[in-house]
Amino acid sequence: MATKQELSEKWSSILESVKQKYGQITDGDLERVEGDVQKLASVIQQKTGQSKEQIEAFLGECCGTTNSLMGQVADYANDAGQSIREGYDLAADQARHGYQATVKSLSRHPLESAGVAMGVGLLLGIVVGISIGGQRERDLSWRERWSR
Question: What's the domain range around 123?
Fold first, then answer.
């Protein structure tokens, strides 16, 4: 895979090869691509009607590489997939360690754990009850609230 530095070093030779192979491409066309290989491939495709694969193969030969632009994209996709897998594995390991720590803590202190769980449940029940009751209160008109 050619890096940007390699492409910039070989850019003039690439342009010469393009001029030799594709006579219908003008100097103005080459100036418009501004050093962008994808723009160059697009201009060549528009002017010559060749397939993208043929143009990528030719540009790969010019750069001294065998990887096409699609090959580079596939490499990037593989790298991204590997990074995602590593992130998933890390998250799974952390979740597993958290679960094991929780089980260990619950088994060491079962009564305290049950008390904390009951207290949290009671508080959540009160909060939900108040919010539901508050909603009903808002639905009442001022006369209905006054007559209570």
Answer: 110-148
Q: b or e along 10-41 (b: 16 or more beta carbons within 10 Å of the residue's beta carbon)?
A: bbeebbebbeeebeebeeebbeebeeebeebb
Specify the number of domains making up the chain.
3
Q: What is the pTM of this model?
A: 0.39
Residues 30 and 56 in one domain: yes
Mean pLDDT of the chain: 81
Task: Mark residue 135 as left, alpha or beta (left: phi above 0; alpha: psi -120 to 50; beta: remaining).
Answer: alpha
Residues 9 and 44 in one domain: yes
Question: pLDDT tier at 127 (50, 70, 90 boundaries)?
Answer: very high
Same domain, 89 and 58: no
Using one digit for the tens of pLDDT, what is the confidence trace for 20-70?
A: 888 888 888 888 887 777 888 888 888 888 888 888 888 777 766 544 555
Alpha-carbon span 146 to 148, nearest angstrom = 6
Domain co-membership, 45 together with 56? yes
